[in-house]
Amino acid sequence: MSKIFIDPGHGGNDPGAIGKRSREKDNVLKVALRLKAILEGYGHEVRLSRSTDVFIPLGERARLANTWGADYFFSLHDNSATAVSATGFETFIYNGSVSATTTKLQNAVHSSIANQIGIRDRGRKKANFAVLRLTNMPAVLVEYAFISNYNDETILIDEVEKLALLTAQGIVNYAGGRMDVAAVPNKPTPKPVEKTEKLTIELEFTSGTLRKVVETFLGSKLQQEITVKAASERGYSSAWINKQADGSAANGDLVALMIGAGVKEFK
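The structure corresponding to this sequence follows.
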């Protein structure tokens, strides 16, 4: 597997671009943290230029990646423009001499995101950005969407998981790993719920009169015996049925038993 360096742009006293509801430095950090977890799940070794809200100079970001010996470098950003109509996703590589690997890496990541992000594909571009120029390994800078556009900003705020998964998909498509990134669980798999003897149903009464009718019905020893017998015939556990029979059950349990036993009308 590969050594992958993730660089969430800006941070600390540099907020990056500012939208009406979010800041670039916060948005990209959330994506970077999730992206790191996903890639590690596929066996890649991942480091971040920052994992908290701190400022890291551009040259230092590149130096950290170079010193570590990263195989690939990715810088994550949100775009911005004066015109609020500006929209779309784009990626950048260095506009100087780059390896064929760099171009292929950009193609893999760009295609993965552009095909599913749901906004305009502004294309694969080149620029003289410091983190692209100063890094020794193939490097790609991602501009996910325009924080200055309301709809684009909604993606940046609400679709962190999707952005991380699409980026990871592109990376593993090129660097290796399982193809189905979406199969990585977003949360730890919950343990199966153990089957218990007791079922609880909460009911809301539409009026105090109805509550009184139900409580009166359940207060009848005869009616309780009817429901217990019916429940037994329907396969309810004996431990629970005995609880109803000896009067130790709460009203909520008795109502549940009554419903389960099929007693539909009471007067």
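The chain is about 45% helix and 15% strand.
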